[in-house]
């Protein structure tokens, strides 16, 4: 009865209690059913099938090519078993007899709202995957479009085999919405690694309705490359419409001599007309797309091979067998080579390395590093210097939080903001994922442009410090030498960065000079009359302090003022300018506890509280300076002026986030495969269970909500 081998038989068995056991009446009912089900007559109607579990399956007669009745068998309990065959040109599911409890033959001449629900795979019903533990990305659309935007519905997506049973041969991975084309993507793979093909259908059960997709098939593809282990889905994609294989090797920049081995069903393979040796690796210039032709009996089929990388520069570091073990000792004699995506070399020389960071070094598997070149050099278009940093962004699902905060800073009048570039890091030959290669903040004409430290005349020297509550914590646990002090009145922890800890101690003139500067400034803040007389302006650059604070507030940066290991800021940098004033900046350290739509602590949503501009007497940040500066109406008015000056430009940050997300999207997928997100501190950004785009969306949502809150509340300070 099947008209084509691709048609799938929908086998529905139900129990139908007849009014009479009369054979003639039975024939009339059967004939009537056949007539009613004719699709050309009742194309807008639907048939209800009630299953054992109470779910209701809706079959759109318009989609059925033909319907027939095989028999109506008398059963011993007085019921009749009716076997109905429905043939679909676009294959649907196949139901087992034990799944069906009854069939309702009530044909309704009106719109049936639930019948508009659809799930349909897009592009093709065949999806390639890599046989070596690879995943397939199955894309599909829903009707209505927002059917799965409810998380409860999304979590109910299942995979079945063609008989309607659970698709036990499949493993289900992430599901996420693709904003670029309004489709959904579900990652699937075949559990049995020896199988190269499996078919199934997507299903969604909700509100006692079963919605089924068209059938799809996962098919493996095979292509070997010399010295390249293809293990990720994103390594290879196949466009079946054009027979184009796109192969991504994120850390390759020179494709001129790639080695391929082809597996094929035919007599031979030629590439650009040159015959390939069988069962051997063949050297191919893949710097441009090449055409591979599979020949059989004088006939050939052409495939286009295109090779790409992640589109990011590649940083290759060789430590020559030495281990970077801590944040104190420099490992010397390593070699660093930086290649642009097109293969041109940006930098190559020896350097020294060591670990860096606080919790990011001690708690994270993916480590950040400090780099010291042998001589000053430009890196990836950034200005000359010897000192650079490789940030891991391990705790940040988006990888973008630091760069987003730096963008905000670059829109202000803060004179220096850290610059950086996203790169692929290859460490001793191993791909380590996505890193952010950036400048290290130092006193220099190309970075923090102020006076160099002057040990003989401290009043003429420049200073660069960090206010960091980890001052004693890591000094004790790692025996890291840090020179600093806790301020006498506000008990804030100041750590010297420049002058270097090797050049000063607590008895040095430079140490005493800066500590005295802080003492004088804090004494003014504790005298309200002196504050209202603006005496603090002698020691503080007000505009820089305001710009710095607004960025901390806008990003909801909890490191701006934390309560662990003790009350105080983390990573708050400041320097002394040529006028002898303290200047806040550059901004730093936004990879976690930032850009959140909500953050509840002790019943309070901190996303609707001030971080360091809090004037409440009960606020733990009361020992910070801003609470006292806000007692001066001049400072408060200036704060509002600068918010109004920047806010419209700042509101464009989500567009910048989208642009940067697109630039690292390929790289991020490899980084996620390598590292995932195993944060011992918990879900500090509230996005560890989200896909990349979901985390990006949540980050933008948090920023927009925070912008709106500040705009409403800043005039209430």
Question: What does it look like?
Answer:
The protein is an alpha+beta fold and 717 residues long. Among the domains are: 8-114, no CATH class; 118-221, Immunoglobulin-like (Sandwich); 223-308, Sandwich (Immunoglobulin-like), CATH 2.60.40; 458-650, no CATH class. Strands 2, 3, 6, 8, 10, 13, 14 and 15 form an eight-stranded mixed β-sheet that branches. α8 packs across α10 and α11 packs antiparallel against α12 (692-713). It is globular, with a radius of gyration of 33 Å. The chain starts with 7 loop residues before the first strand and ends with a helix. 34% of the residues are buried. Mean pLDDT is 79; it is low at 1-115.
Number of helices: 12
Low-confidence stretches: 1-115
Percentage beta strand = 25-35%
Characterize the overall form.
globular
State the secondary-structure class: alpha+beta
| Percent helix range | 10-25%
Mean pLDDT comes to 79
Give the terminus-to-terminus CA distance: 79 Å
Q: Evaluate the radius of gyration.
A: 33 Å
Largest sheet: number of strands, sense, barrel closure:
8 strands, mixed
Tell me the quaternary state: single chain
Got a strand count? 38
